[in-house]
Write the structure tokens for this entry.
Amino acid sequence: MKIHHIIARDLPDLWFQAVHDILDQGNRFVIDRGSYKGQTRLEYDYFCGHVKYPGSPPLIPDIPPACGIPNPVEEAYIFGGDGYGRSYMEYLMTGHKEPGESYTYGERLTRVPISGEKRMWWDHHVTDIVDDRNPDGKIVFEENGVLFLNQIEWVIDTYRRFGERNNQMVLQVAHPSDLVLMDPPCLRSIDTRIQDGALHFFVYFRSWDLWGGLPANLAGIQTLKSYMAAEIGVADGEMIVESKGLHLYGYAEDLARLRCLKV
């Protein structure tokens, strides 16, 4: 198994290097289950990217006009605009879920039910097990008798209150029960660290569409990181991203070759 490692200046640089390299170094697989079943894709064995300045604009790929191809992601898709009923940022940072959606990243990040034993410990103030902070309507809130946690605001508040050296502050997206879903979340976790006065993100995707998914996801996640850093009162730091399934679908190979001048 080969670990493909890229060091990039910014998000467009990461995307271009990953697209360029997968054309020569990706392995071709037939998709057995899930999205695009029966089609082929190029895939890295394992991918690790280190982005030094992910907040440096632009956040989306740079497509020279001479390539004659559209950008794989539009800013309006990420931040809202004509043609898009819901922005990616709403999907990522709010608890809104449309009928038929089994999950959204925002629901997992901002509307987590505190239930079962955790709720019992919370209600009984078992403080050697749980940090039972008072519901404030933002970090912890109650609706119809159900207690919910906003992970984003909890992490911000914890760093503010207890300082920077804390290895517990992981934004969790995955649930063990996701195994029963036909299409479980691709984003599994966003780990965090404050070091040298800056907030850094460590992002893991189980499966990841390189052409359009990676640039949209990371533009949104970087925007989230910028928000959290400002709320905590630290600088906006670096990003390390990993996946055991970063891939390029067959339909995008010709587009990738045009962008990389490999036709």
Summary: The mean pLDDT is 94.
